[in-house]
Structure prediction request, 1560 residues.
Amino acid sequence: MSGNGHSYGEQAGEAAPELAQEAAPTTAPSVPAAFGLFSSDTKKNEDLKQMLESSKDSAKLDAMKRIVGMIAKGKNASELFPAVVKNVASKNIEIKKLVYVYLMRYAEEQQDLALLSISTFQRALKDPNQLIRASALRVLSSIRVPIIVPIMMLAIKEASSDLSPYVRKNAAHAIQKLYSLDPEQKEMLIEVIEKLLKDRSTLVAGSVVMAFEEVCPDRIDLIHKNYRKLCNLLVDVEEWGQVVIIHMLTRYARTQFVSPWKTDDDVVEEYNENNFYESDGEQKEKDRNVKKTYTMDPDHRLLLRNTKPLLQSRNAAVVMAVAQLYWHLAPKSEAGIVSKSLVRLLRSNREVQYIVLQNIATMSIQRKGMFEPYLKSFYVRSTDPTMIKTLKLEILTNLANEANISTLLREFQTYVKSQDKQFAAATIQAIGRCATNITEVTDTCLNGLVCLLSNRDETVVAESVVVIKKLLQTQPAHHGEIIKHMAKLLDNITVPVARASILWLIGEYCERVPKIAPDVLRKTAKSFTNEDDLVKLQILNLGAKLYLTNSKQTKLLTQYVLNLGKYDQSYDIRDRTRFIRQLIVPNEKSGALSKYAKKIFLAQKPAPLLESPFKDRDHFQLGTLSHTLNSRATGYLELSDWPDVAPDPAVRNVEVAESAKEWTAILGKTKKEKPTEKFYSESEEEEDESASTGATESESGSESEKEDKEEGSSDESSGSSSSSEESSDSESDSKESTAKKTSGAVKESNAEESKKKAKGISKNRNTSSSSDTESSSSEGSSSDSKSVSDSRSDSDSGKSGSATSSKKEEKTAQDRKTPSKQDVFLLDLDDFYPVTTPVAVPTAAVLSPSLTADLEGLSLSGSSVIDVTTQVFVPTKTHEMLHRMTGKGLSAHYHFSRQPDMFGDHMVPVQVTVTNTTDQKIENIHIGEKKLPLGMRIHEFNPIECLEPGGSVTVSMGIDFCDSTQTASFQLCTKDDHFNVNIQPPVGELLLPVTMSEKDFKKEQGMLTGMNETSATIAVAPQNSTSLVIIEKVVKAANLGVVPSGQDNIHRFAAKTVHSGSLMLVTVELKESSTAQLIINTEKTVIGSVLLRELKPVLSQG
Amino acid sequence: MLMRCGPGCHCPSPSPSNLIPKRVTSKESCQATDGKHRQSQKMIHSLFLINCSGDIFLEKHWKSVVSQSVCDYFFEAQEKAIDVENVPPVISTPHHYLISIYRDKIFFVSVIQTEVPPLFVIEFLHRVADTFQDYFGECSETAIKDNVVIVYELLEEMLDNGFPLATESNILKELIKPPTILRSVVNSITGSSNVGDTLPTGQLSNIPWRRAGVKYTNNEAYFDVIEEIDAIIDKSGSTVFAEIQGVIDSCIKLSGMPDLSLSFMNPRLLDDVSFHPCIRFKRWESERVLSFIPPDGNFRLISYRVSSQNLVAIPVYVKHMISFKENSSSGRFDVTIGPKQNMGKTVEGVVMTVHMPKAVLNMNLTATQGSYTFDPVTKVLTWDVGKITPQKLPNLKGIVNLQSGAPKPEENPSLNIQFKIQQLAISGLKVNRLDMYGEKYKPFKGVKYITKAGKFQM
Prediction:
């Protein structure tokens, strides 16, 4: 490093003379004028000027250093401006920098002279060195001279497309400066911001978001396209930028996603309703289907997931920013993860503690549970500053509940003894609050406080009195003793508030202490003149109340006190005296009011509420200045409420929209073609062909026709669909039957051409699902290979086919208003759930689209896009639900059909086959009373009106198991009987298979490690070691999707849980000597370990 | 208490005569701009450094100048607070907000005009103080005054338009070289400067914390595992609250771009960890290995907390007997410290401080070991014990003189204890190995463990 300095020194020495010459001409004309202006220069400044004019850099440097020293001290150095500004072109970096410092400080005051320096910066803006370009822009934009606004604007525009991200970062900073100099430029600046927001450099991100927040925080639309990118860059942005981005994204998310909180309550509500009105359960059931169950927008989830690691940041501001983001955006169950990190910050400096504690105080009022485990971290230390102590106390009080109150009260006892009296007083207040909030301990607290009355310290006693007063007021029933005790204390206590409180108490409850009260009045009357105003008022009050209740004893005393009050110095007391006298002492003049005197004075007073001072802070965004001050700070941006309906999430789809530009022409007419044609042109064409010609041997195409048909018929009558289901249980069977049906379906579909048009919706779906056939089958399932090869061979005739099809699309276009939505939501999972097959036949290839693998390359976001697919393998195992003996001839079996459910996102589909083994008709088979664990829901099957003897019917129902293996119990009723039955799901059925690429899988797996990973080594039976067998066995055991694997010895499976949609990743890695490592990664660790247990025997046994 | 001249007449203002009108105009102009537009928006507007006697000894504005008079609000709040510790960090004034920190007897008061996360500013101000500490060896008024030019250059680099620009000490050191005696001599001879003329490459890369082209002849990497025990122990000697807070401070002097990975024998001990930005979070999540390209020089790698579920071994015990007689002006004081569960290591550097009640006038004690001082003004008793040898337990006893007539203090004072145990991490955390990738040479590696008392209170 020092070598560097040396070499520089030489260089600078050479450069200096020519520099001076260069600088001189530019500034020369102005110099004489300047001298004229400042003729009254002090000698010292003269000397500085000379140094600045000297040809030696060292002299100049010395002068500049002294000038900077003056600036730092706040001394005025403006008269040196002309002399300093000449040196702006100095080649010596240090001089240059100091001149910059000077310029930024004084340019505003000396605008004309400052203009002299502009050309230097303009030249520097073109310098090949990015550092020089950046710093020129920095200084140029920091000189607050309005005349140069156009120059600045130009410079910013240029710099915003500079190759160096560092320069672009400075451009982002300059935006804010220019905006504050000239707000007129807003529109132009927004354009630049828009451009810079697209920047992919982590360097720029923080700065440009900062500029966005200052210039146009309301232009939320600029964020849409950059949302995912920002989320993904976040971890790599520098800390300060992170804070700004997180705060901005919090605001953004509150406008774009629906609340994750409401649903918590809704579910409970619904459940309760269900309990109450079981009889009309069916009606409710329908209602529920209409109500959209909440699924978190994947973008919402993305934000939460990507900010979570930042809780580990060393920067308290970042941690706090994430904490407030979770507080404002995360489902209530997840917000808890921030508490640990916040507690960690309490080790930090006093100032950080102060802010963090304030925020925790607000949080702890609303959600106690978050910080309860950390109760002890808020214990007060004697070395804490008072403001920290009181905040901790506040939090402790908020956290107090029945369980911990005894420990807390013990802790409070030590606090009361603290030497810091202010804090001791606050503790007593806190005890009072605990006492009112937790009724169990009210008496204990009260006793404790009474003990404190004998404390030596006056402030403690006084505070206790005040708190006792409040407490007694809440339950005045049986506290005569305490009041007597306090009356005795009156002699010793001198603190006015406390004396006033005692007097008030005695007055208020004078009827409970009839003997003492007059005596107290007597004593205080004696000392009246020496009392504080506060106390005097209460003496007057006491007198008035006694006069009304016990006038025999106290009449004279009260008169005396009133007389004293009449001549008091304080007008307040004189006023009060006059008022009381008129009210209570009967005379001719006193009017109607005196009749009510008793009611006025002895009215029941409402007890004061002891509330946290942090109660109303929560309407400010946490972590903000406004929250800390509890008042709106200038420029505070309100956090909007959640929208009722989420705005179109498609606005955040960036890459697809861009890459699909070429298709926009087609889009207008046939929207649905966008994704399909783009990514699956092959199968798309094939599908088109089959659809338009109507006669094709392609299996996949005709199969989808068949589904059309089924869709149609099932809508008409559920009976017909179920009648066609009896066929198959085993997988191979289903294959055959599909093949059989295919031929029939083709014919039928021709006949029903017109009907199909009306069912445009379902066809759209099939288009995509058939396309998926190709991708997913090639990915792993050997059983479908046939259809693939078929479609491949067919696809040659592509072009002509698509032409015909597009004509056809036009015809059906108007029918498609609804489905068009589906296509836009490329990344939205929800829309792919309800693949419309309510049928129970386990069709082999009902597959919803998996665009993911192909999208991945385009998606810069890197957010893994995961789609749900249907399963190719369907378990053959049926379980008995009702034996014919117990069912009096009615028997029922169920199996898990693994169809993506039509009942709702969270339902596991179950097929129930009911058989009549009696010789009579069984009528009206339906589901009766349900006994479900909390949160579990059942979608009932349609009642079977009549079941012939020996006949059997298969119906499907949906059960939301809430991702648990708890049993769903309900009654199966017939017309005249009912039987209790249970359905218990194997853990493997609580999953929905998903397709994802290997890369996504690894990425997701990387995120689900540690606690979220369970693994086991198992012995694998030799016959099980081929990949086909493994896949078959695993998939049979659990509803998992196969993930293509690059390695032969590793098999990967992915699924998500039906209810919560948590990923479940299963890896089987074959090792030598017929062992294998079985790894499961999931957030749902319980299910994960159960699944592990169930999968173990599957592979080890033959 | 602070000695300060009243508002409107404090000393180092540029032109005392026109101070008052100036203050008014500054407020008026603010009002005007507020009304016109949300104009001068920015995060940190100005910074004032104020010493304990209330002198503003440095000011720096990142935008238009804010009059020093704004600090009057700060002084007001300061007077209201009983001691410096209690000055609220955030103060609201009619047109500005003041966010301040107190470090090393200096108040760093920043002026804010609009909504900003307060922690953002606080954290930044601490970073500024850290940088001063780093550059000048201490963050004191004299050090700052002596190096005012460097301070100014630093502030200029750290904040652009009120938004933090470069806060990594490695970058700053490339931009502005820290002063050394040698360099100042060299500079004065050769006329070269403290200001770097090269671009801080770190700022442009994805690893802004490391400067390029680092070269050492001896390549060394040292890690200090420092653990502090925070504990509150009640009178009966049972632990109310105990927790271990640890940090790993590193001193890394390695050439080139080394990629290190540090693994622990028992990483699961670490309950809550915060990382230097250089650490790859994903690696930690998946493998519990600290993988990072280190900054050059000294830095804090991680700080962690050992979960409070684990029982914390308390290495010392204290037997104390402090009593004040009723109606007498004296009391007895008897304290013995002994080692406990120290795993065969010696407890050293033991210092006990006691904040005696206000009524205590003087103390007359004898120590069997070490020396004690009692400050009658602050009422702080400090006993420097040194090393504890189990054979002869250190004891301090004697008479406490109380103010005559004052009531007996009702509570025994709490004892704060400091100690140190070398070569022991009380949590049991152990570094397993350190691997280096990316460079060919073999570095010298070292790990040191220290256990200290944090906020240790009896």
